[in-house]
Design brief:
Layout: H1 4-32, E1 39-42, E2 45-49, E3 52-56, E4 61-64, E5 73-75, E6 78-80, E7 82-86, E8 91-95, E9 98-102, H2 106-118, E10 121-124, H3 135-147, E11 166-172, H4 180-188, E12 195-202, H5 210-217, E13 222-223, E14 227-230, H6 238-244
Parallel strand pairs: 7-10, 7-11, 11-12, 12-13, 12-14
Antiparallel strand pairs: 1-4, 2-3, 5-6, 8-9
The structure holds flavin mononucleotide.
Flavin mononucleotide binds near residues 94, 102, 138, 172 and 174.
Length: about 240
Amino acid sequence: MPPDSFKWWGSFGLRVFYASAVCDYAVYVLDKYKLYVNTTITYWRFRVKKGAFIIKPQHWKYKKVPARRRRDRKVRGRFVAELIAFFSRRDENYVNGLIKVLNRGNTETVASILQKLTGAELFQIEPVQPYAKDYNECIAQAQEDQRRSARPELKAYPDSISGYDTIYLGYPNYWGTMPMAVFTFLEHFDFSGKTIRPFCTHEGSGFGNSLEDIRKACPGAKVEQGIAIRGGSAEQCGKELEKWI
Ligand SMILES: Cc1cc2nc3c(=O)[nH]c(=O)nc-3n(C[C@H](O)[C@H](O)[C@H](O)COP(=O)(O)O)c2cc1C
């Protein structure tokens, strides 16, 4: 009969094996459900060196990510800090051929779904002087703003965009491009070196000329192809967004 201590050491290898399998599975689950947002788990590393089985217990802890990094997300193996900046207007709008009163703008709906999927910081681009609640009045005001290349004053800006790698830029298609307040926002910062991922809601014209306009307003930024969503489908765009991000 081997002494008890032998049995214990004999099963030690198995325990280590099970522990590593459990950790691997935990990392796989975190990866699958993108739970890096709040946590990272690293685990014991095993290395075979010159025939010796070396256990490096350098990790095996549940590590809280510092607050500054909380909203970072792992994309293609590296953490990125993301901001969602969007313009949206509630009240009367034209949706699927009918004038409707919206309690929440379509782009805001898309932005909030995107926020849940990415954990990114949200910022709403709001002009000091909002457009009229009445749809017909609003389209006339927006057209006039576009005609005279207005740069409406904004209520606020993010303190800085230097901490973000990626900016999701959301807006409705207004007369074939972005609302002029979005131009004000883009011209306020230096986006060079940043990735801009546009998302747009519309009633049939998709992005219109907005992608070219973003590229002109943000020289040096990488402006991606983006995603255009029909305003009336904003509530149901979760799956499409998930594929896109
Ligand atoms: C002033 C104005 C201009 C618009 N121009 C267009 C347009 O040129 N092409 C288009 O497809 N939709 C156009 N639309 C429809 C909006 O893009 C669409 O309803 C969008 O989902 C509104 O987003 P929001 O609710 O976030 O403001 C326009 C709407 C408004 C209010």
